[in-house]
Amino acid sequence: MNSTDIVLENLRKNITEQSFQIKALIQDINDCGGPLSELHKLNSEGRIKIASLRKYIDKFWEVAEENKNANLLKEVLLHRDQLSSTMDFFKKANIKAMLQIEKDSKEKLLRRRDETGVRLRPHKRDKENLVKQSSNITEQLLAVSRQLADTTKQSADTLDSLISSSESVYGTQEELKLTGSAITQSGKLLAKYGRREFTDKILVWFAFLFFCFCVFYIVQKRLF
Fold first, then answer.
1. Most CB contacts within 10 A, which of 97, 144, 184, 190?
2. Virtual CA dihedral for 56, 59, 65, 67, nearest 10 degrees?
3. How many CA atoms does the CB half-sphere of 224 hold within 13 Å?
4. How many CB atoms sit inside 10 A of residue 8's CB?
5. How large is the greatest C-alpha to C-alpha distance in the chain, in angstroms?
6. Taking the complete model, does pTM exceed 0.90, yes or no?
7. Could you tell me the CA-to-CA distances from 104 to 31, 34, 152 in Å, in that order?
């Protein structure tokens, strides 16, 4: 196994591990019932792991590009598609969890009012907390959306590069096929000329022997 194969094997391992960890975090986010700080923590961990996954995929693409390997380039494209899908699930899980936390907060506030028997407007501090929480949720959703948009753009750029690289690889393969065909034809011609040269040598030897025989015959007749 050469150094490139070792690098690719390690990258595949890291990509698989990060993907599983992100899926586990997405499930934790789906199950998160609050508080909002816990969701922020899970969200932060998810972003770090997604950034690591993207880094490993970019490194894989660099190796595939250096080796001009069409199969590796296709594998990169598959990883990019999976990353995009994972980001989509990550965003949906955050939206679901944030909306649920906001809903629970409102219900909790209403229950508190009902328990105290107060039918007036909510306390100013409660309103401020609710507005702040809603604002934090909105910011989180916007951040996730921006991250998803960045990943989608990178995937599109990578796709263009992959198409260009694949065309280059296929073009090189066609050139190699033509070169191989030319070499094969040249080999056949050389073999043909080699056989002809061997035949010419045999004819020359026969002619020389015949000449020697004639000289010997003439000399013998004159002497005897």
1. 97
2. -100
3. 6
4. 20
5. 155
6. no
7. 14, 9, 33
Output the CA torsion sign for 59, 65, 69, 74: positive
Tokens, residue 165: 């690289």
Nearest Cα neighbor of 4 from 87, 57, 64 is: 64
CB 101 within 8 A of CB 132: no
| Cβ-based neighbour number of residue 60 at 10 Å | 22
For residues 56 and 48, the answer to whether their CB atoms sit within 8 Å is no
- The label of the residue with tokens 């590009």 reads 65
Structure tokens at 144: 């996730």
Residues in CB range of 51: below 8 A, 6 or more apart = none
Q: Count of CB atoms within 10 A of residue 98's CB? A: 24
Q: Which three-class secondary structure state does DSSP give residue 122?
A: coil
